[in-house]
Write the structure tokens for this entry.
Amino acid sequence: MKKWILCLLLPSIVYGYSASDKSSCTDLNLDTASLGKVRNQGKISWCYAFTAADMLQYTFGISDKISAADIATNYNNSSVGKIMDLFLDYGQPHETGFNKVALIQGMKSGHCSESSFPSEEWIKVTSGQEEKILMPQAIEEIKKLYQLRKNLTLSNLPFYFKFKNVDKKTFLSILQTKNKIKHFFTELRNKACESDRVEFDKRLKVKMVFRNKNIFRRINSQLDSGRIVGIDYDSRVLLNTQNQTRKISELHTSSIIGRRWNSEKNSCEFLLRNSWGEKCQRYDQSIECQEGNVWLGESSLFKNMTSIVYIKSKGL
């Protein structure tokens, strides 16, 4: 595990790649309708968790949307998550993470539905009135409330966040019995999902491949096999397709769900399912965006990517 983390952090020395020819870039769009609309991670860096949730749901054919918040919070329990927490002291669900780790940890722990533990909006209850709050904002409000926990009672609790299996009393109990905020979020996850968590029917192998000259052959092979491919890359390419550098602080994760041949550019293009919501105004104007799914050419992808991740049967 240490080896692949180190490889990801080191600059790549690969300068060229084997481009897909037209015969290997036939039009393909995986049937991802079951995943629903493109998710919106908002101002929290949970792209790895949103991508992992989609990949697991698609791979296992799960009808209920898998909670990305559950996967992100569960990341703290992985060996990598614990090591990162020692050095970075997040004190909350990880703001960054590795897609491979999230997938492995997710398969190990089982999945929780989005309806039990939402990933985009949480329900805030104030004086009996409910309102939907963006999840990153909710986390910040909880962190402030946590500082006051010793003096809080059911009668003076200013607000709480409601979940399928968490009421006001349960929320306050978790708030007051956990001595670290990260433990609060872990227990909130456990309570919200305790009666709804479902084990995966089997454990599959997660493969990570670093950028190399034949990387698109690997991507095309997985797409041809009907598998979604996770990709780690510099997010700045989405804002400026001319970006050609990769910084760890800018790393982003999406999933590749389709491809097509661009006759004008004589190049293969790939369809990325992103986690910035359905609106397209945020992207470089030269990027074709379809309700939050974006098309990027091989050249732009190669210059900005670091690795890919996919799920396969252990025997393959």
Remarks:
- The chain is about 30% helix and 20% strand.
- Residues 1-6 have pLDDT under 50 and may be disordered.
